[in-house]
Amino acid sequence: MEDCVFSHAFIISREFEYQFGSGKAQPTEKKRIVFSSSTMKWIPNQLLDSFPNVEILYLENLQTEAIKSDVFRNGTRIKRLYLGNNNIETLDDDVFDDLHAMELISLDENRLVGLPPTLFQQARKLKTLTIAGNNLERIEDGTFHFTIELAFVNISHNKVNFFKFALIPSLLDIDVSFNKLKEVTVSQRLQYMNASYNHIGIVTGFSRKLRVLDLTSNNIHQTRWVQQFPELVELYLSHNQLREIESEPFLQLNHLQILLLHNNQLFAVDPSMNLPMLRVFDLSHNNLVNLDNMVHHLNKLESLSLDHNSLVTITPRVKNDQICISLAYNDWDCANLWTLSSALPQTAIKDRDGNCPAPYEDVRGICCRQNAATPYLERLLEINKESRKCEVDEKTN
Asked: Which residues of the chain have pLDDT under 50?
C-alpha cells in the first residue's frame, strides 16, 4: 500500500482555504496518509475531500486541539484512525458517525476529560479502541452499546473511577491499569485483563475464558474470588493487602503457571495448596515463617522466590532439578538450610545475603543461625496471635 506523506505542513488558522494532494480537482486513490514533522491545530475538511479512498489515516503528533463534527464526512472507508499525542480535550458526539468501516481508533495521549455516550453509536465494526494517557474519569454505561465487535480496549493511565466494561459482551482483552477503579466485573468472554495500579478491593463475575489477570498494586484482602476463573494461566497479586492464602479457592486452577504474591502481608500459605502446572511462584517480601510441606505439590516449579521473609525452615524436597530459588534475607535455621541446599543443584540458589554478622553463619551465600528453634517458636506464636486478630477484625467489619 503506497503512502501519501505530508511533511512540514503547518495549519493554525481557519481563515484560509486549504488544498491537499497534487492540486487536481479529481480525488486521489491513496489509501494511507501520514503527516510528518507537521502542525495542524485543526483538521480541514478538504483533507478527506481530496482523499476519499483513504483507509489508514495518521493524524498523530500534530498539536491538534479540536476536530469539527463533519471533518470525517468523506471518511466512510477509513479502517484505522490514529489521533494520538495531540491536545484534544473534547469530542462532538457525532464526530465519528460517518466512519462506518472503522476497525481501530487511537486517541492516546490527549487531554480528553470525557466521552459522549453516543460517540461510537455508528462504529459497529470497531474492534480496537485505545484512549490511554488522558484525563477520563467516567465511562458511561451506554458508551459501547452499539460496538458489537469491540474486542480490545485500552483506557490505562487515566483517572477512571467508573467503568462497567462487562457490559461489552464482545470484549476479549482490556487494559484499565493506572486508574482509580474500586471494583471490577469480569465478563464471560474476557481472556486478558490488566487492572493493575487501581484501588480494587472487589472482583466479581465468572469466566472460563480468562487466562491472564493482573491486579498488581490494588486493595485485595482475600482470594476467594479466584475460583470464579478456573482456566487462569497467569495471576498477578503482588503489592496488595493479602495476609493468608487458603487452598480451597485454588482447587480448580489446574492450568495456573504463574502466581505472583510478593509484597503483601502474608504470614500463612495453606500447605495443601495443589497447583500441578505452576512454574513461577513469587512469595518474596512477606511475613512468612514456615513453608513446610507446601512445595511438595508443585512438581513443575521452575522459579520459587522466598527472599525477604522471616522464614526459619522449609521442608527440603524439591522435585525439579532445574529450579531457581531465592532465599536471602530470612532467618534460616542452619541445619535446615544445609539440608535444603544439599538437595539443590549448585546453580539453583540465585541470590546472596552478603556478609553475615555474628551469630549468623554463611551457607552457600545465605545467612543462617544455629539452633533457631526458639525464635521460630516465638515467631509462630506471634503469627498465630496476629492471625486470630485478623479473623476477629474481618468478622467485625
From this structure: 25
Helices of type H across the chain: 46-50, 334-342, 373-396
> What domains can be seen in the chain, in order of their start residue?
1-173 (3.80.10.10)
For residues 124 and 273, give the distance between their C-alpha atoms in angstroms, rounded to a whole number: 45
Q: Confirm if 151 and 172 have CB atoms less than 8 A apart.
A: yes
CB-based burial, 124-163: b 16+ in 10 Å, e otherwise? ebbbbbbbbbbebeebbeebbeebeebbbbbbbbbebeeb
What pLDDT is recorded for position 378? 59
Residue with cell 493506572: 178
- Let me know how long the chain is: 397
DSSP helix/strand/coil, 278: coil
**CA–CA distance, 85 with 309 (Å, rounded to integer):** 44
Q: Has this prediction a pTM greater than 0.85?
A: yes
Cβ–Cβ under 8 Å, residues 32 and 1: yes
Please report the pLDDT score of residue 216 as a whole number: 99
pLDDT of residue 365: 93
